[in-house]
Amino acid sequence: MKDMAEKIKALFLDSKFSVFGMARASLLEDEPSGYRPSDLLPGARTILCVGTPFPRGIFMSPGKEEQTYWRSAAVYYRHMDAILLQAAGMIEEDGEMAVPVYGCFPYHVQGWGDFRGYLSLVKAAVAAGIGSAGKNGLLFNSRYGSRLLLGGIVTTAPFMPASYPEKDDKGCPADCHVCRERCPVQAIDRAGRVDRVACLKHSMKSPIYSHLVRTVRPGFEDLEMINHVTGVDDHSWYTCIKCVSTCPY
User: Fold this and answer.
1) Count of CB atoms within 10 A of residue 230's CB?
2) How far apart are CA 10 and CA 5, in angstroms?
3) Cβ neighbours of residue 3 under 8 Å, at least 6 residues apart?
4) CA–CA gap between residue 124 and residue 222 (Å, rounded)
5) Cβ–Cβ under 8 Å, residues 66 and 238
6) Which of 75, 90, 110, 203 is 20–30 Å from 196 (CA)?
7) HEC profile of 105-128
């Protein structure tokens, strides 16, 4: 497994993933039923998490940050998803099993405007030692703040826990509440809990999805399918990234 871990590390570095780590899957087995590593892959032993930062200049582009972020996210998601799939294939060539946890789609639709990923990538990143949970609900990394786009892998391979670069995480500053104060819909409370429904309804739009929902009024299973088909990548539009763009770190 050590040789395979080195090959995975080399792939991630070549792919410009600035941070990544590995942790025991058991650390996330107390998640709600349906959202644990073993629910994604029976026999899961390790979770891998990677992060790539958005250029800082995107968030400092007055009046254009949301449009530039939208396009950048679509490009980054496709790149990261492809590398995660490649890494999962490498692990399986070594005799184990692996499932990519993509950065955005697919996810479960739990209710109107309420979505939940198959596995919490923020919690996977914290377990893997590449950051801590920030007050805006995103991962806070000591070097990149909240600018990291995350992806992961769940695998039966017994990799040793590790993080790159080595962990040097002081966490989201205790006396900073800029993200909460600047949130247009007050979706963040002082304890760092985020109202997902309020956030998503304000920050993400999909014109095709909205048209079909108004026209068809589907059930939740159909809603999930329609959302995945009409909202993935360039088909969705971001209308708010204030919790990242106003973060002083």
Assistant:
1) 17
2) 9
3) none
4) 29
5) yes
6) 75
7) CCEEEEECCEEEECCCHHHHHHHC
Phi, psi torsion values for 165, nearest 5 degrees? -60, 170
Beta-carbon-side half-sphere exposure of residue 64 (alpha carbons within 13 Å): 6
**Contact call for residues 224 and 113 (beta carbons, < 8 A):** no
Count Cβ atoms within 10 A of the Cβ of residue 192 and give its class: 0-12 exposed, 13-18 middle, 19 or more buried: middle
Close Cβ partners of 6 (under 8 Å, ≥ 6 residues apart) = none
- pTM recorded for the entire structure: 0.87
- Give a three-class secondary structure readout of the chain: CHHHHHHHHHHHHHCCCCEEEEEEHHHHCCCCCCCCHHHHCCCCCEEEEEEEECCHHHHHCCCCHHHHHHHHHHHHHHHHHHHHHHHHHHHHHCCCCEEEECCCCCEEEEECCEEEECCCHHHHHHHCCCCEECCCCCEEECCCECCEEEEEEEECCCCCCEEECCCCCCCCCCCCCHHHHHCCCCCECCCCCECHHHHHHHHEECHHHHHHHHHHCCCHHHHHHHHHHHHCHHHCEECCCHHHHCCCC
Q: Which residue has the tokens 């080195």?
A: 6
Peptide bond into 53 cis (omega under 30): no
Q: Which amino acid is at 243?
A: C
